[in-house]
Amino acid sequence: MDDSDEKKQETSRRNFLKGISALPAMAFLTSRSSAGSTSTLAQSATLAQSAAKSPSETGKKFVAIQIGARSFVDEGVDKCLDILQEKGGVNVLMPAVFTYGRGLAGRQVPGQPLPDHGVLEYDEIHGGSYTKLHPEFYAKSVIKDFRAPELGEFDILADVIPKAKARGMQVYCLFEEAYNTRLIPNFEKIAEVDVYGRISSSTCLNNPDARVFLASMVQDWLTTNDLDGMMWESERQGPLNNTLEAHFGKIGRQRSINCFCTHCLQKGQELGINVARAREGYLALDRWVAQILNQPQPSAGSFVALWRLFLEYPEILAWEKFWFHSQEEVYGLLYGTVKEANPKAQAGWHIMHLVTLSPFYRAEQDYARMAHFSDYIKPSTYNNCGGPRFAQYIRNVQSTIFRDCTPEEVLDLHYKLLGNEGEASLDKLPTVGLSADYVGRETRRAIAEVQGAVPIYPGIDIDIPTALNEKRTQPADVQAAVLAAFKAGAPGVVLSRKYAEMKLTNLAASGEALRELGGA
Ligand SMILES: [Zn+2]
């Protein structure tokens, strides 16, 4: 490690510790006091993983699946577990314990074909906690009342863990940042505030009450249940990428330019950022994006104009860096909270699909940095829905950052920048999808970045919704993706996004691949 690396890590450690110093009693320093010090990644990981043995360490493949409470209620806990074990070769359950989103909760997404199992009707979801709340853990939290009501008293942890354990399965609770702001009393007290002063739909990463809320849930789950681990999905990015529409959603809607709440402004100032200039810069950038989206294309000279804005307001980049460093601090907080509650439990992170599609997001989500506060990492290497998503992302960034180029040129540039040469052309990408090779390449890249310090469990796309005329998952896709992940050196996979939307024929292809590899 050279001096500059060491300096960077030291700065990271200071920011990291600074973030947690404002928190109430979390025995965090104990477990991570050496994070980012002069130790190598591998040494850090040894510390991080001092207590627990994951299936990969015992020589067993780690085959996890994400599953919502609705599936257990509809199909019965034992029947679900039978199917997961027999068809999918699953040995690790990831029950979605907290979400307000359809990606993890509920049955099939309305409008998508119903799968070949479960109750064959669409449902409504309310969302919240799918396990009982133990009030003593929320004494300091401003968010206290968020039990999901739609499944009665069913408890996705208490009602499932004993049955899973009896079969030798491990259980990692899963939660995500998908909130319904209307349904959570006091949400405005923990929300992000955008550059225009509007309350946003996610939590502020620097708001002490938001951190207490997240840590309270983790403490509750890990203390009151016999869990083997936890996974958190922080599916969002900072203000720069959002303003530039560098995502795979629809563009032209209100851009999410966060966070400019009082906590962030104060902390940014303490870190030496000119916060007034950061705000001005983002307002100017948002105006530029709005203007360019109304121009006919192509629009020569757009990139130069954009770059001039960055030169005029370097605070734009400073604020983006501040955002993802704040996100890392929350990862660190939750890591420490898990270890405090149960030193043997494994804490890891689902990394949003964009990490494989956007060089901008990839630059921020640095697996090597993450390895300091992770027991494992799940990169979302979703190759089927990856086709339409990547095509949409390319059209979005072509509309803003790369307005001087054609969409086809922008795709070629991204293939080059991301190492994806040989994948489909733009006209075919939505219907062909990305290849199983992409799963292998992203797996190898992640393993290389963490230098083997923590296990990489790639996410396998099984029936993640796409439009009906776009790429749909086939059994051969699942089989090839699982094989590619293991052959690239991954010790495990996470079957994603949720069992309720997977066809059993596709799930069975995971089991087929595992048999081909020599068993789970
Ligand atoms: Zn904030």
The end-to-end span amounts to: 37 Å
- What fraction, in percent, of the residue positions are helical? 40-55%
Number of discrete helical segments:
20
Low-confidence stretches: 1-52
Number of beta-strand segments: 11
Radius of gyration: 22 Å
**How large a portion of the residues is in β-strands, by DSSP E?**
5-15%
Give the structural class: alpha/beta
What binds here, in terms of ligands, is:
zinc ion
Main sheet overview: 9 strands, mixed
Identify the overall geometry: globular
Q: Name the average pLDDT.
A: 91
Describe this structure in words.
There is one protein chain. A hairpin with a 5-residue loop joins strand 5 (191-193) and strand 6. Helix 7 runs parallel beside helix 12. The chain has 520 residues and is an alpha/beta fold. It contains 20 helices and eleven strands. The strands form two sheets. Strands 1, 2, 3, 4, 7, 8, 9, 10 and 11 form a nine-stranded mixed sheet that branches. It is 43% helix and 10% strand. It has helices spanning 3-21, 28-32, 41-48, 69-75, 77-88, 161-166, 208-224, 239-243, 262-270, 275-293, 302-312, 315-341, 359-364, 367-370, 386-399, 407-418, 429-432, 436-449, 475-487, 504-517; strands at residues 62-67, 92-99, 128-129, 170-176, 191-193, 199-203, 229-233, 346-351, 376-379, 459-461, 492-496. The protein binds zinc ion. Residues 192, 204, 206-207, 259, 261, 263-264 line the site of zinc ion (ZN).
